[in-house]
Specification:
The chain has 110 residues and is mainly α. 60% of the residues lie in helices and 10% in strands. The protein has 3 helices and 3 strands. The radius of gyration is 17 Å and the shape is globular.
Length: 110
């Protein structure tokens, strides 16, 4: 029974990690790049999880789009690509910062 609890806890932790990662992309897109909330969305329950942008035809475009529509959609909001590196890396920064901070808190109590 304890093994089942650990497996469930592991999946919940993985889900939280993916959500925090995608939230980093979303927040960078919204508040640094300046993408309006109607044009950006977190798609957690699609494989792979991603942050989708609204394309020219008002359909949601995934980053793994083969036609390059995601890049076109992004460049509508950041024409020079000035914030593209931060937008891409924000998921990594946000998730690592969150889990480092939350993982180190219990260490201070022991």
């Amino acid at each position: 029974m304890q093994a089942v609890s650990w497996i469930i806890f592991g999946y919940l932790l993985l889900f939280l990690h993916v959500w925090v990662h995608e939230l980093g992309h979303y927040l960078a897109g919204r508040f640094i790049v300046g993408i309006h909330k109607d044009n950006i969305r977190i798609k957690l329950f699609e494989y792979p999880s991603h942050v989708a942008l609204k394309g020219e035809d008002k359909q949601w475009v995934a980053p793994n789009d083969k036609d390059g529509d995601y890049i076109e959609s992004y460049l509508k909001h950041d024409p020079q690509g000035k914030w593209s590196f931060l937008y891409i890396m924000a998921g990594f920064y946000f998730s690592n910062g969150y889990f480092f901070q939350s993982g180190s808190v219990p260490l201070f109590y022991f």
